[in-house]
Amino acid sequence: MRSIIRPRTHTARWIGMASLFGAALFTGCNNNTSDGFVGQPVQIKVTGRTDLSAEIATDAGPYVFTVVDTAGTGVQGVTVNFTSAGPATLLSTTAVTDQGGSVLTSVHFSQLAGTVAITARAVGITTPAVVFTSSYAAPASKIVGSGGGQLALRGTALTDPVSVLVTDTYGNPVVSVLVTMTATGGTLGTLSGRTGADGRFTTTYTLPATAGAQTITASVTFNNVVNTVNFTETAN
């Protein structure tokens, strides 16, 4: 009996190769998790330092943010927009994430000391990322007194305390500046101390038992120079 030789077909082989190629292609696009594909941005977060601050009228940064996928891997090529609230100007308002998914921006602080919020947003990501920074006053350069010119009975305390305000060039209060007080007569409640967060040092004063004008002097040293302000109080 003669054998019948059938032509060999490659259909099955090509189907198998196509299936393998398709599976490989799909695997290359998938991050092997059930959450989604590699590169799908789902979160933006602060990844740089959060304790940055600087003197007023100067630049500060960088403030770093990172866009990640469901696996926590940085996503490249995502446009991030920045906004700020507070006494500062952004040096860049938009950036595109790098290979690690990161972007950065910096700010220029104004002449007013205070807290600044920097917010980063990306399309498709619901919750923005926010970092807070702050500026502080320049070195002390001015001293202003209040509470002078009071009149009271001899031997009694003044109605209002004697106060000294220390500021920088722009009028921002300067903290922790040493103030020294002296008086020609009478009694000061505190002879020295440091300015508080409001830039002020305050003390009480009791007039002497004799009538007449008394001079209180407040002294502050900055730029290696002793700066003074005088108060005249009168006992009657």
What order do the helices and strands come in, and which of them pair?
Elements: H1 11-29, E1 43-46, E2 53-55, E3 59-68, E4 79-85, E5 88-90, E6 94-96, E7 102-109, E8 114-122, E9 129-136, E10 142-146, E11 151-152, E12 162-167, E13 178-183, E14 187-188, E15 192-194, E16 200-203, E17 205-206, E18 212-222, E19 225-235
- Give the strand tally: 19
- The CATH class designation of the largest domain is Mainly Beta
Question: Count of helical segments?
Answer: 1
Task: Summarize the main sheet.
Answer: 5 strands, mixed
Strand content: over 45%
Order of helices and strands: HEEEEEEEEEEEEEEEEEEE
Helical content stands at under 10%
- The CATH superfamily name of the largest domain is Immunoglobulins
Q: Kindly name the structural category.
A: mainly beta
Overall pLDDT level: 87
As laid out across the biggest beta sheet, the strand order is: 2-9-8-4-6
What gap, in angstroms, lies between the N and C termini? 146 Å
- Low-confidence spans: 1-36
Indicate the overall shape.
Answer: rod-shaped
| CATH fold title of the largest domain | Immunoglobulin-like
The CATH architecture designation of the largest domain is Sandwich
Q: Write down the Rg.
A: 35 Å
How many structural domains are formed by the residues?
Answer: 2
